[in-house]
Amino acid sequence: MTIEPNSDDQTAEHEDASEDEGFSAGMSLKGSLREAMQAPPTVYEIVGGQRFFDELVDRFYDAVEDDPRLRPMYPRDMGPSRRRLAGFLAQYWGGPPHYSDERGHPRLRMRHMPFPIGLAEREAWMAHMTASLDAATIADGTDRPLPDEIRAAMFDHFDNAATHLINQPPE
Ligand code: HEM
Question: In order of start, what are the domains of the chain with their CATH numbers?
């Protein structure tokens, strides 16, 4: 099992289109067939596909709905926000690129600039996501727990990305 997200660092700023190859790299048919036959399962496949990410994000946003610090940042209808985050995460962990088809390059730091994110907002966001991750099970109907190494890899991704998105100086 490899715990590797899609090769592109999707939280980084790649304003230069030439750096965006991870989203549009052409591959020869021969190359892609060979890779498909040898490819280990992706994290996306192991956790049960899109349903896993929908459930993770639903638990997370249910908590955000009740958080007086975070809730005001989000739009009144959080349905589209749920879909965007679940689509982004599914794509990041090896699922189909529906997020980028709809939204283009993630450019997460730029997209979070309208929202003041300091340490307190980062900690609140991480607390809800950590709780959701702790409650997560494989989405294949068996309710098996998430393997420790996958949980740890997802936690690290959230932890690093959340720090990267801080855009306010310390108080
Ligand atoms: C650090 C604390 C964070 C806060 C306060 C925060 C807040 C927000 C807000 C207010 C939005 C706009 C709602 C929407 O229209 O979707 C948003 C969007 C989004 N956030 Fe965060 N976020 C945080 C961390 C993260 C992290 C760590 C990730 C990814 C690992 C992430 C991924 C996203 C994505 C994918 C979107 C939708 C972007 C788009 O296509 O418009 N956020 N976030």
Answer: 47-164 (1.10.490.10)
